Amino acid sequence: MEIGIDKIGFYAPHMYLDMNKLAVERNVEPEKFTIGIGQEKMAIAPITQDSVTLAANAALNILDEEDKEKIDFVLFGTETGIDHSKSGAVYVHRLLGINPNARAVEVKQACYGATAAIQMAKGHIALNPESKVLVLGSDIARYGLKTGGEATQGAGAVAMVISAEPRVMRFEGPSAFYSDDIMDFWRPVYSDKAMVDGKFSNEQYISFFTKVWKQYKEKAGLSLEDFEAICFHLPYTKMGKKALRAVIEEASQSVQERLMDNYQVSTEYNRNVGNIYTGSLYLSLLSLLEEKEDLADGSLIGLFSYGSGAVGEFFAGRLQPNYRDHLFTEKHDELFGTRKEISVEEYENMFEETLPSDGSSIELDIDADPAPICLSGIKEHSRQYVNKQRDVSTLSGGDSR
Ligand code: COA
């Protein structure tokens, strides 16, 4: 049975910061951010967006009534979840009106969460071929103002429908994976900002990639020339290039050029959104699929997932016949085309404006946020979400259903 990605979409908040302007304010040469790190724009989440609303908005863009009926498993990969106990998946499940006879679970292992969710989804579909699984990767990356990681922040979500007989990409062949207990990036429960040993995390990312690539080649009997492109988890767009460079000399000159050219296309969306943690690899895949118009049906695409702490995995998918007909390119073009630039000062103010953490209630102005699904406040310790398209005024996590 073929199992893979039937639909894929993403959502990013409607505001962005120009990295050239951030560089000027931080007394850094703009080329450090735009070339050295490889980021042009950074999506900035208003206070009315969190990992739940970003994920729900991403899924809202791609699901139809049949999907909502057939989805019986919602898997939510995130490392910026909103509750230690209740999963973000349960909120998204309700906000989208998915079939109540479904499982809803959150998956955590840094930026690897959505990949773990995909592997679970494959098992679920293998046992239940009529089912569909909604896999979400949704995060807001926060390192802090004026920190080394500041230029690698971002916000957004990717939503994928995993099913049998998929229309976009079928997963093919083995997976190679590797885990080791390291402290390269983490976020203690008392902190809303990540801790990172930047240089060490870069080294580990490359080391994990070379290990799983070596293992994958042995398991699959394939080499670089078999791949039309390789997509990477992209905390910033230079990162995947460094990993690809570590193995690229295994290939002929023409294959090297093809992989490097396609790598560039696969970083386009990420370059303009920033780091979205769990969704980052799949945003890169989306960038390749939507931006490279001559990418042939049947192409084999490699996928490298890395979640600090750390777990790495390499696997592959083959593009289905007429896959382009099943993309949502116009919606994503519109999303990019309608974003609004904000100043560094506005970004700094928004960064400091956080939700109360002392248990008090708050009401938020959702009129300023064009997203269909927003966080409208906190009442009695429970986040209030609104799906404007369903014209629901205020709903909490279940008590006013
Ligand atoms: N023009 C072009 N390139 C420039 C430049 C300029 N004017 N100034 C600096 N650069 C280049 C550097 O040469 C370097 O390139 P290299 O990595 O290929 O050597 C790059 O810009 C970054 O410069 P560096 O001095 O290393 O930056 P930094 O000390 O501020 O750290 C990160 C960069 C990415 C480590 C930091 O932003 C970080 O910690 N990010 C979060 C961690 C992360 O994302 N880890 C990834 C694993 S998930």
Largest sheet: 10 strands, mixed
List bound small molecules: coenzyme A
Outline: globular
Counting helices, strands and paired strands, the structural category is alpha+beta
Fold topology:
Layout: E1 3-11, E2 15-18, H1 19-25, H2 30-37, E3 41-44, H3 51-60, H4 65-70, E4 71-77, H5 88-95, E5 103-107, H6 113-127, E6 132-141, E7 154-164, E8 169-171, E9 176-179, E10 185-186, E11 195-196, H7 198-220, E12 229-232, H8 237-247, H9 253-266, H10 268-273, H11 280-291, E13 300-307, E14 311-319, H12 329-337, E15 340-342, H13 344-352, E16 362-363, E17 373-379, E18 382-387
Parallel strand pairs: 2-15, 4-5, 4-6, 12-13
Antiparallel strand pairs: 1-7, 1-8, 2-3, 6-7, 8-14, 9-14, 10-11, 13-14, 16-17, 17-18
Bound molecules: coenzyme A (COA).
The site of coenzyme A has 22 residues, from helix 2 and helix 7.
Quick overview:
This protein has 401 residues and is of the alpha+beta class. Helix content is 34%, strand content 25%. The strands form four sheets. Strands 1, 4, 5, 6, 7, 8, 9, 12, 13 and 14 form a ten-stranded mixed β-sheet that branches. A three-stranded mixed β-sheet has the order 3-2-15.
